[in-house]
Design a protein that fits this description.
Enzyme class: hydrolase
Cofactor: Mg(2+); Mn(2+)
Structural class: alpha+beta
GO molecular function, one term: protein serine/threonine phosphatase activity
Catalytic activity: O-phospho-L-seryl-[protein] + H2O = L-seryl-[protein] + phosphate; O-phospho-L-threonyl-[protein] + H2O = L-threonyl-[protein] + phosphate
Number of strands: 14
Order of helices and strands: EEHHHHEEEEEEEEEHHHHHEEE
Organism: Urochloa decumbens
């Protein structure tokens, strides 16, 4: 579906819940992430954000206003009319830019150690907006943005993402197809997933005696799956065309963007 955004920015928000730890404390882990995202949306019209258009500041305000108990990884991206995508990410959510059949930009995860990502939290020991990876990317007409939780990127390779995006008639169909393929791979114990490959590279594998028999650690990763797909339809007079990536200073100006967007969740 094509949506003409007349606001000064558009926000993609992707949350991964840390369900296990909070379930042990009898806490509904969905409440924190939902309130954090609701606050993010509410603060979009904040006067200071209208001037700076800074996703890190948006995350700061949303986190400070969130009273629910819990934690979550988060990525916020603000897309401007000039084609500048500004990103603030905490944890292992991902975002990729696909241009002309290739991944030209990726956000990489922040982890304390393997499979233990940074998280925005209600507790003082958690991370804050100051821990976010912050950057900006200059987009072009026709670029596709694929963002999601680690349940997506742990179970789908880049080439699979590119194929689905290129073969889908629209972003709505692409988001649904990506979520479904990630779900399918996540429960496939014979699939050598990006997650299992990364685990082996970090020293996790089957016992040595199984290795002697030719076995190795494989399989998908069952997890919450969130997918957001958007395609840049028009860019208004960008100052710099191309795929330049730079550190975000929070003082660039912009107006709006026409994009197509869709979100699909698999639990």
């Amino acid at each position: 579906m094509l949506v003409e955004y007349l606001l000064l920015q558009m926000v993609f928000q992707v949350i991964l819940l840390s369900t296990d730890r909070w379930a042990e404390k009898d806490v509904n882990p969905a409440l924190f992430s939902r309130e954090l995202m609701r606050n993010s949306s509410n603060f979009l019209n904040d006067e200071e954000l209208q001037v700076n258009r800074d996703p890190q500041s948006l995350l700061m305000k949303a986190h400070a206003a969130t009273s629910s108990i819990g934690s979550a990884t988060v990525i916020i991206a603000m897309l401007e009319k000039t084609g500048t995508l500004k990103i603030a990410s905490v944890g292992d959510c991902g975002l990729k830019i696909i241009r002309k059949g290739q991944v030209m930009f990726s956000i990489y995860p922040q982890e304390h150690y393997f499979d233990c990502p940074y998280q925005i939290s209600s507790e003082a020991v958690g991370q804050t907006y100051q821990d976010a990876v912050v950057c900006s990317v200059n987009l072009m007409e026709g670029d596709t943005i694929v963002s999601g939780s680690d349940g997506l990127f742990d179970n789908i390779f880049d080439q699979e993402i590119i194929s689905i995006v290129s073969e889908s008639p629209g972003v709505d169909e692409a988001a649904k197809a990506l979520a479904e393929l990630a779900r399918k791979h996540s429960v496939d114990v014979t699939f050598d997933s990006p997650y299992s490959i990364e685990a082996r590279s970090r020293g996790f594998d089957v016992p040595w005696w199984k290795k002697l028999l030719g076995a190795k650690l494989i399989g998908g990763k069952m997890d919450d799956i969130t997918v957001v797909v958007a395609k840049v339809k028009t860019v208004a007079a960008p100052e710099d065309e191309g795929g330049d990536i730079e550190q975000q200073q929070g003082d660039e100006q912009g107006i709006a963007v026409a994009v197509a967007s869709a979100e699909q969740n698999e639990e």
